[in-house]
Structure formats: structure tokens, C-alpha cells
């Protein structure tokens, strides 16, 4: 059990810097998910914790010990790789038990612990097989068993589910979560899949271009994204982001004028980006609210997503399955003020006043229970 | 479906294949038939009708003490040389594969000896390992004749084996480095996470995954040791089979017997025995070594 401290960590390859000073604390026993698009530096950060990449500048400490100069084996981490990285010439039992063999655990004890671990990950009947004779999900379990058997202080997962098919991914996700509850080791899980991130994380770290965009609980990040990047990256379909300006205490979105709470009076004249999630947009009576032209409709079964165009900008809305909309048809949307997000157009950062989101106090009060 | 183009006419494909066929016939099948023929006849070196003698050529060869000696040292040569060359190539490849600073330069350096012809390498080593000067002279100062390949047969044999290793280690190095680079990096990293150090990783992960390459090298290098033209060249440029037949490898003896002794028939018979020996060794390798090789 160990806390991970990441202090002003940078990474450069030659002249290109891929991590620009990352500061994070992962408390003991938490399940931390690092989420970001490919190339954002999330895997690099994980590999630096593991000891597979050198730390260009800054410090990483595991359980209070600075590990910058330690070999991977001295750091007490175990890692599950994206392609599983199973030893193809060894049986499942040898794969799982390799770490014990290296550390010189006697054969009898080794076998006992391998069997124990195999039982936990459900591989008891496959111990003699080679990895090539296993399915994707089974290989994944071998990889997890191999990481577990050393009873590591820290578990690292490098996009472990991305090679599995959709159905298996869901069940493995649940298994990883259960495993975490059982072992209670600090876990760091890297992914580009926001559903994995939302469902697994105690604490979510969103990264972009080598910087941390936002850290927090998944719901907190969903409801109060700190930047337009986070707002667009989390949530499916993505949040609508529309350029606008604060005029007369209100923002104008196409034909709709939405008054802001009095606390935002100071924003008068500022150019802003207004965000609203497609699932919080409602259909309005024809001729009122924001009018957009339907472009195409995505069927999801339980509902549908209308992709429309409003003054040249795309605008999406999730609507019930009972409404029929034909492409080319004008639709009126109602944008509830309490669900609006305001971002500074220049910096892309969220605009909050006194820690309050853009919406009215009443709306913030209804959100509060969900955040705590 | 893969698209295949089919030649309708018969003469066109034959025309395309003809140059290659001609070369094979001229430089392989014809000489092989000649050797088979000569092995069972007495071939006069300056022309004239050959006399069929049955197995007499083989009897003569097998009754020669020196021939059996030659077989012995050939086997020693073809085991020590290739195994050491592969081992050194493996160590070098493992080192270069770690991609430490300067590995590109060393990669170039290690491959270089392969570009040097056997006789030229032999010439160079005549000076490098000459007992009278340089490195070996320092050894001999400690104790006279500690190293003297001109005097001791065992030294001379070691001498030609060293040249073989020097030349072929670079060749095995290329193959093994290519093999190592196809081992997924994540496997090495997984082993590192499992607590395995560089040497342990090499033994537990990299070498087992290199088994197909190692086996290929074992077969080809042993064949090279028995019949390689460079093997002849190395002996020819250095010891010329001496002292006292100590380095008279089978392949050297065959060429020497045929073109110095003009005993074409005896040399042909020895060639056939040598081919048989290579077949036996290759069979042993496939029967006992290949079983332990896992292809993916």
C-alpha cells in the first residue's frame, strides 16, 4: 500500500518535450484513471512510474521513497500491458509464477501461490497451456494474475482492455474493479476510453498534450469540466460548444437569448464559449428557443441523437425515441440556463465565480448532492 | 483470391528459366555426376580411359590412418568453431540490442569481419598470432613455446578455429540481432517488471525466443565448418594442413589430394564421405535439437 507523488515531472525526447511539468498525488488504495487522447503523454507518465522510461526532470515517489534512480524491480509496482506481453514459450503457470521464480521462492511455495492466484482469476484449468492456446480474455487474466502474484504496492494498467471485444471489455472492467477492491493496492489505469474511465475511477486525471487538464472525481469532472477540452472529451455524444459573447447579462446562441445569473455581471462584453450537453437540451415549441436545421439522426435504440446545424456550427441533441425528425427539418431547442457551461474563449478555461458554475444558484444547489 | 498470371505458351517460361537451369547443370549436376563417377573408377589425371574399380577407392581412404585423423579434427573444428562463433555473436547481439550509447558504431564494427575473405583473414592472423612477435611473443616470454602453432598441432588447430570464429561471429551476430529485434519490447519490459535483470532476461526470455535462429545458425555454421570454401582458404593461407597433418581438415585434404596429388578418384571418394558425414550431423541436429525449438 503506497501513495504515489508526482512532482513537476517532465519528459523530453531530445528537443521535443512530451510532458510539461505534471504534479499529481495518488492516495493509497485509490483507483486512479488517467484519460486522454493518444499522444497526450499518459502512457509515458505510467511508464515513468513503472521505471521503464527515464524521468527527465522532477520527482516520482512511491510510498514516500523517491524512485527516480531505482530499477523497475525495486519499485514494488506490477504492470498489465496493452498487448498482455505474456512469455510465449512458457505455460500459464510459468508465466504467472515467473516473478516468484526470479526472486527465488522455493518451488513448492511457488506452486501453491500460482494455484491460489489462478483460482482468483479463474484460470485453474488452463495452467498447463501456452498463451497461444488461450482466448483474448484468458490472456488478459494471465497478465493480471502475473501482476497480482507479487502482491505489489502499486498496480499499473496500460490500456489493458483495448485489445478485447466490446462485450468482454465490459465484463473485464467489472473484474478489474472487483480485483481492486480485493487487493486494495493503489492502481493507476491508463485509457483513452471515457466509459472505462468514468466507470473505474475513484479519481480521474484528464490529460492533453503533455499537461494535466483536470483532476477530480468522475462525476465532478462530468458536471464541471475545467476546460473546453475536457468538456468535449468527456461525455458521449460530445458537449456542444458554441462561440458567443456576454451582452446585457445574457448570452446569445443563434436565435436564443439566455440570461445569466447576476453573479456573472462582471463578464459583460467578454467573448465566451458556451457549452451544453446534448442530453440536457430539450425540444421546444416551434418558433421559440434555438432553431437549428436537422442534418442527420443517429438511432441508439433507447433514444436518438439529432445532429443539426445552427448558423454553420454543429449542434447535437439527445431526444426520446418517440419523436420523429427528418433531415432538413428545422427544430427548436430549449437550453436550460442551469445546464450551461461558460468557458473563456481565449484560454478555454472554465469561468466560475466564487466556485460557482455558470448556472444560477438554485441549479447549483440541485447538483451539489451529486458531487459530494 | 490471389491473382495468378498463367503463361499460355510452353517456350516462354522455359526461356526465362534457362539461364538458371544452365548454370545449375553446368556447375552443380555435372560436377556431382563426375564426382560420383570418379569415386568408383580410377581416373587418370592426364586424360585417357577410366577403369572401374568398385569400392577400392573407399577401401583405400578408410585404410588410411591419416584420413581418420582428418575426420577427427574436422569434427572438432566443426563443433568448436561454430558453437563459439554463435556464442560470441549472441553475446554481442544481446549487448547491441540494449541500445546503449554507441551501439550503432559497434554494430557496424562487429559485422565487418564477415566482409573479409577467409584467406585474407588467415593472412592477417598469421601476423597477429605469430609466436615471434606481438601479443603471442609476450606470452612466450613468460614461458617459451606457450604458444607456437608452427610446432604444436593442438596450437595450430586452435589457431585455425580462432580465425573461423573471428570471421563467422559477425555473421551469426547479424542474424541474432535481427532475431532479437523481433522479440517484442514489451516482453522484455514485462520481465523487468517481474524483477528480472538484464542477464536473467537474456537467459529466460530472449534466448528461448531466439531458438529458431540459433538452430538455423547451428546447421549452417556446422556445414560451413565442414565444407566451407573459406574453411579451406583459412587453412591454406596459414598452416597448410601442418604441422604434421594437425590441421588437415577434410575439406583441405580433399582439395590438396585432388589438385596437388592429382588423385581425383581418392578425393572424390572422400567428398562423398564428407557429404555423408554432414548428412549424419544434420540429421542428429534435426532429430534431437530441433525438438526443443518452438516456432511461433
The first-to-last residue Cα distance of chain B is: 26 Å
DSSP summary, beta strand count of chain A: 20
Helix content of chain B: over 70%
Question: What's the Cα radius of gyration of chain A?
Answer: 24 Å
Order of helices and strands of chain B: HEEHHHHHHHHHHHH
* Average residue-wise pLDDT of chain A: 85
Helix content of chain A: 25-40%
Question: Concise description?
Answer:
The complex is a heterodimer of chains A (372) and B (296). By secondary structure, chain A is of the alpha+beta class. Chain A has helices at 42-50, 92-102, 107-120, 136-148, 166-183, 194-200, 218-223, 228-233, 361-371; strands spanning 4-13, 16-26, 31-35, 57-62, 65-66, 77-80, 154-158, 186-191, 203-208, 211-216, 240-247, 250-253, 256-259, 271-276, 282-283, 290-299, 303-310, 313-320, 330-334, 341-344.
Labels describing this entry:
heterodimer; A: 372 residues; alpha+beta; six-stranded mixed sheet; 9 helices; 20 strands; 32% strand; B: 296 residues; mainly alpha; MetI-like fold; two-stranded antiparallel sheet; 1% strand
Can you walk through the features of this model?
The complex is a heterodimer of chains A (372) and B (296). By secondary structure, chain A is an alpha+beta fold. Chain A has a domain at 230-371: OB fold (Dihydrolipoamide Acetyltransferase, E2P) (Beta Barrel). In chain A, 26% of the residues lie in helices and 32% in strands. Chain A contains nine helices and 20 strands. Chain A has helices spanning 42-50, 92-102, 107-120, 136-148, 166-183, 194-200, 218-223, 228-233, 361-371, and strands at residues 4-13, 16-26, 31-35, 57-62, 65-66, 77-80, 154-158, 186-191, 203-208, 211-216, 240-247, 250-253, 256-259, 271-276, 282-283, 290-299, 303-310, 313-320, 330-334, 341-344. In chain A, a hairpin with a 2-residue loop joins strand 4 (57-62) and strand 5. In chain A, helix 2 packs across helix 3 and helix 3 packs across helix 4 (136-148). The longest helix of chain A is centred in the middle third of the chain and has 18 residues, at 166-183. Residues 357-372 of chain A have low confidence and may be disordered. Chain B contains 13 helices and two strands; from the N terminus they run H-E-E-H-H-H-H-H-H-H-H-H-H-H-H. Chain B has 296 residues and is mainly α. Chain B has helices spanning 11-39, 56-62, 65-97, 103-111, 118-128, 134-142, 153-181, 185-193, 198-209, 211-227, 229-237, 250-259, 264-289; strands at 41-42, 51-52. In chain B, strand 1 and strand 2 (51-52) form a beta hairpin. Chain B is globular and about 75 Å long. Chain B has a single domain, classed as MetI-like (MetI-like fold, Orthogonal Bundle), CATH 1.10.3720.10. In chain B, helix 2 packs across helix 13 (264-289) and helix 3 (65-97) runs parallel beside helix 7 (153-181).
